[in-house]
Structures are given as C-alpha cells and as structure tokens.
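Human:
If only I could read backbone structure tokens as easily as an amino acid sequence. I am handing you a single protein, as its sequence and its fold in token form. I hope you can help me see how the letters and the tokens relate. Thank you; the sequence and its tokens follow:
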Amino acid sequence: MEIRQLKAFLAIAEAKTFTAGARRVNITQAAISMQIRQLEDEVGLPIFTRTPRRVILTEAGECLLERARKILREHDSALAEIAELGGVEHGRLRIGSASAMFATQQLPGILKGIREKFPNAEITVNSGTSLTLVDKIMHGEIDIAFVSLPVENSSITTDLLFSDEIVAIAHPGHARANEKFISAATLAGEKLILGERGGNTRRMIDDFFNAANVRPNIIMELSRQSAINQMVEDNHGVGTGGAKTIANEIREGRLISWMIEGAEINWELGLARLRGGYFSPIGKEFVRLCKESFTEREKGLKARR
C-alpha cells in the first residue's frame, strides 16, 4: 500500500469520479485507474462501485477512508518534521480564511513577517466558509485557518483573535435612524441583507429569529461583509455587522446602527488547527504574528472611538 495509491484513493473518494480525482493529484485517468487496481489487488476487495456518473465507496472503501486520511496526515507531519532539519528558514504553511476582510487588511502584513523569518517557506492561502475550512483541516488539505468561533469539533483546537458584537445597520436616511434599538419583529420585517449560509454568524442570526418566532424577510445573501455594507450604504436594505468593524462607517455618517433587542450575538474570529497534530515552527510563528496583529488592531479601534 503506497502513499501515491492512498492519495489517488482519497482524491477519487472526495471528487466522486476518476476524472476529477486524477485532476486533483495531477496525473492521467489511466494512471489513477491503474493505482486503484493495484490497491484493490492488495486489499483483496473492491473499494469502489463504478456507476455511469460517479463512483460509490464499498464497505471496504468506507473502512479504508479514515485510515487513509490518518496515514496521509502522519506522512505529511513526518515530512514537515524532517524538512526542519534543513534549517529554520524552510517550512510549509497552508492557510485558509473565512474572513475576506481580515485576509485583505491584516494577512499581507502577517505574511511579510513570516517571509522575513522563513524566506524559503512554501505558503499558500485559500478562502471558504468556516465549515469548509474546518473540513479541509480534517482532511489534511490545509494546516491552519481563520474561522468563526466556536468550532464544534473535538479534533480541532482554536485560538481566539477577535470578538465583536453583532448590530443591525441601515442607511442614515432610514425612518428609524434616530432610534438606538430595534426589536426582532421589526428587524425581521425589513429588507434584510445577510451573510451567506454556512458561517457561524449567519447561524446565530437565524437561531435568534427562530427563537423570537419571526420569519425574516431576506432579500440578499452575500459572502463578504464589505459587500453587505455597500448594499446598505446604497439603501438597498438593512444588514448586520460587527460594531467595532463598522465603527468607521458609522463615524463618517455612511451607516447608522441599532442594538438588537434580546440578542447577544458575538462574532468571534479565531485560528483553527488540528488538535494533537504536528505544530511546526512556521505554524507557531504564524500564530504569534496573528495575535500580535490583532492586539494592535484592537488598540487602533479603541484609539479611534
């Protein structure tokens, strides 16, 4: 049972077809088919059931799946530890981010600090929802990720970086612009512009409306907070955002905000990684620089209030 065979097996299991799996591991379909035949010969049982449109894991395939993931994680950890022997300037860090705003505003500076200490490091950055990125960590596809907290997975450990209270936001010309609070029922009746499903913040907002027994009038679901802010600024509807995060727009008179009655929704951003996994020097330095960056951000936000 070879590492390349396990990688081919995992790629097909996740992509659901031999063609897509071959693209994932950058080999031809003929080559990946041969690797799976060799693996099935060694296992002694078929691991896939072939259908015209997709492949389905057999019972043997299901049994192999988690073990293959564990073996490949251990394989990657071993390579990373051995790579350290080449010097501290080397390393690999695969980063995920569920926050486009922080990836744009702070990640470049953090990565600059990493490059200074690890000039020959291999660094990649991917985006996605918190749920998707946690899944990628579990599958060994990325090492660490900016995600919304909490993460309800006992195999994942997190470090809190930033916390912000969620408020409702509207155009300054809104009829209720002079009010400080808004009820769940009133907010639900507005033309709402919310974040996309799959993130913790959206889940908490949905739970709030469900608990209040009201049905929100959602007209837009957007992936970026900046897009929500812009839509609200252009008076297309009412949105939500972090009080600290939208403080600049409030101060400049581009938005107004309301506290949401009965809601205690805090958006928390943290770094997630595999619990008990190999924590490389480059990973430790990345966490240190992130905490330092967010501490400076908090100081800057307080100074502008």
User: Anything to note?
Assistant: The chain has a mean pLDDT of 90. The longest strand covers residues 156-170. The first helix runs from residue 3 to 15.
